[in-house]
Design goal:
heterodimer; A: 566 residues; mainly alpha; 2 domains; 3-stranded antiparallel sheet; two-stranded antiparallel sheet; 21 helices; B: globular; oxidoreductase activity (chain B); EC 1.6.5.11 (chain B)
């Protein structure tokens, strides 16, 4: 076996990924060797430093890639080109902001995660862990592993690496979803659901990869693309394999009909985790989808176009329509994220270079607004109004009626949330508008103007449910909830759905989730935490405004490197 | 000073005002009204200076031009410039704003408790003013679109947060109607860009005028733009949001909404639809003219039947917008000039009407006509003001509205006699809704519960007085104003590629009232 030669590895271009993964490994060691009292500080510093390091590394690589167009690494398993760097920077930035939300604690030192995730909900052991002040600091290394996987996912041009990256990013997310401090059963249900469906779709995708290998005899995108140029009688394998592979990617971006997990998982997972996965997973998965569609399958664009069109239209329509009747903020944002997946898909369908720039920009704009919005959700809490002298701050107030009157009581929070909603809705002078404009113009330019038309109509309908929250926050009086469920819901129904359509019956909205909290007498308060979430939200708001008013520098930067390397 | 960016200054000043109001330290918040009024008046002075810098002899060309790259990657520029029409509309708007501020002086609970609500309201008014100036000055289609959509947000809050009992419904309806129209226009905007030369200045209007468009494409593009403008204007059959919005909004908001904002619709038809899509405009003109005539009659008939004064005024505007659209799509320089002038006069007249109804409603606590009666003897000054303003709505000679309505009808008659004749019925109906309203509210026996109503105070006289004065001046001396709008109208006709039809070609028609103006 002396013939083995070590492969040439260019370490330089892989630094952004390596920094994050290395820090994750160190984070595991920290869990073992650092005293419990100091773990959180050490983990937090380590996580933030590694993500900032990844950003710096991307910046260092930037000019080289801009000059050369990018390089292959590891014999083509990874490609470090412009889109890779943009996506890695976006993921690192959004993960950095999410980390701040992960780490934040309210008065009393409670963060968003269960003190001991392994404890049975409601058991004595859990109560013991809580009273001892235990903390699940493993969330930071888990976040870093997931981030590392996400940074590889869009950079790979090799199906096997794609699959490995998918698992590396998914497994920590399954765990994180189940670690909610409050509503633990809901959280664990979300985790279970996510895991089962995720595992299933992984298998489907792996099968697709197998078929593609059978067709082309190679796992490299470029080889498969080359193979599609010459008919070899195995086209059935190609088509089925490609569809199964796309199904896996559609699952990750939350496109219809693979979206079922999204609302449940987004709602059940701890809000910081939701922020992280709603933003970063989507960025990573769309990056991978771009590379697959543009790099591997241009030869079968004709066959795939139908699929992409149908999925894009379905995603926009289903996401929008389902969001119209939600009564829980997190579920509503989940359905809105599905609709956004559809909007991004219109840019992907364009199949030209302006589409790549547009999609990359949209992902940044969407990610910033998403992290910001979920960050704010994590600050809006219930507070008991019982006879206690210092009523305890409880879980998040995610039922929409609880947000009534927030504009009066907490104007800054409400205005900031409104900013994110307007960005989601694509109102000019926010980042969301520029993103939407970019993807729709790419779609029109690519000849898919019908898709763009569906997109704008869906946007108009989507505006309704974003506006509904604004109505609720600013134009509806808050009730210091007496019968927390019904009085408010009916006032919501009469107040906001009256605008649904004149003459139509007001939509009767069911109370979202019958949790034990629905019976409890609470009022809505906004907590400041330790200020970390506030910082994250402020940065997201700044990004949303700056990208809306002066998107030029970022657009130019993306466009200057927006060419995928085969 | 010739290179001073007048238009940008006109945009920035109200923005500064809005920011100043929001950032006002807690101690100074009691003076929020004064600060807002100061900014609004300073804006008027700035507008006067901009008028001085504008060369009226060249009113057809866009002046005070500024062009700077904004988002080159998308082909978007910060391009401003006004011709006579744009300048006149900006002038009308900035005159209305201080009056709206003054009219809101005692609203929104300013007299009891901290003036905080009023402060937010006034800040939104100034923010809206900035957008208004920008939209009338935009010479870049994308910039126009951005402002067209962005200005919905302050209006939405002005209705939804400060309006009447059904304000949430009205605000949401307003927003969704406008957004739906706007988003369809977005597809048109994108498609238009792709038809044009592209590049970093691809959205400049002058780069998009005179494109050699495929006729089918041009028609679709025209429709996507026209739908947004028709909703905004609003025209029959997409007008239903307006009465709700106007009824529920505070009077000042209705003034700006109907008096100024809706002009963006007709202004867009005139400055974007006609020059960008001349062939499609000619193609659509017959249908548009029919819709305009329907708007005139339908709006007037519904106005007669209203029980709520704000709704009544809103429906009169539907009728008036019918006249404006009719004039624009009659394609004669006289009718287009009349429509342009009509836009200015309608802002003054309807604005004053909304404000006066607001004064009445504030006194009575109701906008319903049945709650009033015999007020003439109780509040003679208010009644007199109301009568004059009401007469302007039915275009009494001597008031500026007469000049513009006459020009529209005469100009239209030269090309479409039938449409003009039917439209004239709208004038008759106008007399009914105005005079009948006056009769029910101000004449008859004094209702006992109204006997103690106070007459118009100095503040209220100052609100309406300038508007009436302006209408009288423009009514008797329309020349200078017509000098602003006539050359752009001729330019529009030239861009449309139709032969102008002079009203004088029909010998039985009198010389239009405005012609002496063009000799000056």
């Amino acid at each position: 076996m002396s013939g083995f030669t070590a492969p040439e590895i260019a370490w330089g271009p892989m630094v952004p990924v390596l920094v994050v993964l290395l820090a994750a490994v160190v984070g595991v060691l920290v869990e073992a060797f650092v005293p419990a009292a100091r773990r959180r500080t050490v983990q937090l510093v380590l996580t933030l430093a590694s993500l900032a390091g990844a950003l710096l590394a991307v910046a260092a690589l930037w000019s080289g890639v801009e000059r050369t167009g990018g390089t292959d690494v590891l014999g083509g398993s990874l490609v470090v080109d412009g889109p890779t760097l943009v996506l890695q920077a976006t993921i690192a930035l959004l993960a950095l902001l999410s980390t701040l939300i992960f780490a934040d604690r309210v008065a009393g030192g409670e963060d968003a995660f269960a003190p001991s995730a392994a404890a049975v909900p409601g058991s004595d052991y859990e109560e013991l862990a809580r009273s001892k002040g235990l903390r699940q600091t493993e969330v930071f290394p888990l976040l870093l592993f997931a981030t590392g996987g996400m940074m590889i996912f869009p950079a790979t041009t090799d199906l096997l690496t794609l699959f490995v990256a998918l698992e590396v990013l998914s497994l920590p997310l399954y765990l994180l979803s189940g670690m909610g401090r409050r509503r633990r059963l809901l959280s664990q249900e979300a985790s279970m659901k996510y895991f089962l469906l995720g595992a299933f779709i992984s298998a489907v995708m792996l099968f697709g990869i197998g078929l593609l290998y059978g067709y082309a005899g190679s796992l490299r995108y470029a080889d498969i693309a080359a193979a599609t140029a010459t008919p070899n009688g195995l086209e059935g394998l190609l088509v089925v394999g490609a569809l199964l592979l796309l199904a896996g990617l559609f699952f990750k971006v939350g496109a219809v009909p693979f979206h079922m997990w999204t609302p449940d998982v987004y709602q059940g997972a701890p809000t910081p985790v939701t922020a992280f996965m709603a933003a970063c997973t989507k960025v990573a998965a769309f990056g991978a989808l771009l590379r697959v569609v543009y790099g591997m399958l241009p030869g079968m664009a004709w066959d795939l176009e139908v699929v992409l069109w149908v999925v894009a239209i379905l995603t926009m329509v289903v996401g929008t329509v389902a969001a119209l009747v939600q009564t829980d903020v997190k579920r509503l944002l989940a359905y809105s994220s599905i609709a956004h997946a559809g909007f991004v898909l219109t840019g992907v369908v364009a199949l030209d270079d302006s589409g790549i720039t547009a999609v990359l920009f949209y992902l940044l704009a969407y990610g910033a607004a998403t992290v910001g919005a979920f960050g704010l959700v994590s600050l809006v809490r219930e507070q008991g109004t019982g006879g206690d002298e210092a009523p305890a701050v409880l879980g998040e107030a995610t039922r929409l009626p609880q947000w009534a009157g927030l504009g009066r009581s907490h104007p800054v929070v409400a205005v900031t949330f409104t900013l994110f909603l307007l960005s989601f809705a694509g109102i000019p002078l926010t980042a969301g508008f520029v993103g939407k404009f970019a993807v729709f113009s790419a779609a029109v330019e690519g000849g898919a103007w019908q898709l763009a038309l569906v997109g704008v109509l869906a946007s108009a309908a989507a505006a309704f449910f974003y506006v509904r929250i604004i109505v609720l926050m600013f134009f509806t009086e808050s009730h210091d909830a007496t019968d927390a469920g019904h009085a408010e819901v009916s006032s919501l129904a009469s107040g906001t759905t009256a605008g649904a359509a004149d003459g139509a019956d007001p939509v009767r909205v069911p109370v979202a989730v019958a949790t034990a909290e629905a019976e409890r007498t609470t009022r809505t308060v906004v907590v400041g935490g330790e200020g970390l979430t506030v910082v994250a939200v402020a940065v997201c708001a700044a990004i949303t405004v700056v990208l809306g008013v002066a998107p030029s520098p970022v657009l130019d930067a993306i466009a200057s490197v927006g060419v995928l390397l085969p | 000073m010739s290179n001073f960016p007048w238009l940008t200054a006109l945009v920035v000043l109200p923005l500064l005002g809005a920011a100043a109001l929001w950032l006002l330290p807690a101690g100074a918040r009691a003076r929020a009204r004064t600060v807002a009024l100061g900014f609004a008046l300073a804006e008027v002075l700035l507008a006067v200076a901009a008028f001085a810098a504008f060369d009226t002899a060249e009113a057809a060309t866009h002046q005070l031009v500024e062009t700077a790259p904004w988002i080159p990657a998308l082909g978007v520029s910060w391009a401003l410039g006004v011709d006579g029409v744009g300048l006149a509309l900006i002038g009308m708007s900035v005159v209305l704003v201080p009056l709206v501020v003054l009219a809101a002086w005692r609203e929104q609970g300013s007299t009891d408790g901290p003036t905080d609500r009023l402060r937010h309201y006034l800040a939104l008014v100034l923010l809206l003013e900035a957008f208004i100036v920008l939209v009338f000055a935009a010479r870049d289609v994308f910039l126009f679109y951005v402002v067209f959509e962005a200005m919905l947000i302050p209006v939405y809050f002005m209705i939804g947060a400060f309006g009447g009992a059904q304000r949430r419904y009205a605000a949401v309806k307003f927003l969704l109607y406008s957004l739906a129209g706007g988003l369809v226009m977005l597809v048109g905007v994108i498609a238009l860009y792709l038809q044009g030369p592209g590049g970093p200045e691809g959205f400049l209007v002058e780069n998009l005028v005179g494109l050699d468009l495929d006729p089918t494409v041009e028609k679709w593009l025209f429709l996507s733009f026209f739908l947004a403008f028709a909703i905004k204007a609003p025209m029959f059959p997409v007008h239903t949001w307006l009465p709700d919005a106007a009824q529920q909004a505070p009077a000042g908001t209705s003034t700006l909404l109907v008096g100024v904002l809706d002009k963006v619709g007709t202004f867009g038809m005139l400055t974007l639809c006609l020059p960008l899509f001349p062939a499609a405009s000619r193609w659509a003109a017959p249908v548009v003219i029919v819709l305009a005539v329907v708007s005139i009659l339908y709006g007037a008939l519904l106005a007669i039947g209203q029980k709520d004064m704000m709704r009544l005024v809103a429906y009169t505007s539907v009728s008036h917008f019918g006249f404006i659209v009719l004039g624009i799509f009659a394609f004669t320089s006289t009718s287009i000039a009349g429509s342009s002038f009509y836009m200015v006069n309608h802002g003054l007249s309807t604005g004053a009407l909304f404000l006066l109804v607001g004064f009445l409603a504030a006194r009575r606590g109701s906008q319903q006509i049945v709650d009033f009666g015999g007020l003439q003897k109780v509040v003679p000054v208010l009644a007199g003001l109301f009568l004059v303003v009401g007469l302007s709505a039915l275009s009494l000679p001597g008031l500026s509205t007469f000049v513009s309505e006459f020009l529209v009808i005469v100009g239209t008659f030269a090309r479409h006699p039938a449409a003009a004749v039917v439209a004239t019925l709208g004038v008759v109906l106008a007399a009914i809704y105005v005079l009948w309203l006056y009769q029910r509210v101000f004449t008859g026996p004094v209702r006992p519960e109204l006997a103690t109503m106070t007459d118009a105070g100095a503040r209220e006289r100052w609100v309406v007085g300038p508007l009436i004065a302006l209408m009288l001046v423009l009514g008797f001396v329309p020349g200078p104003a017509l000098d602003l709008v006539r050359p752009p109208a001729q330019e529009s006709i030239a861009q449309l590629g139709v032969d102008d039809v002079e009203p004088t070609a029909a010998p039985w028609v009198a010389i239009p009232a405005g012609t002496e103006g063009s000799d000056q």
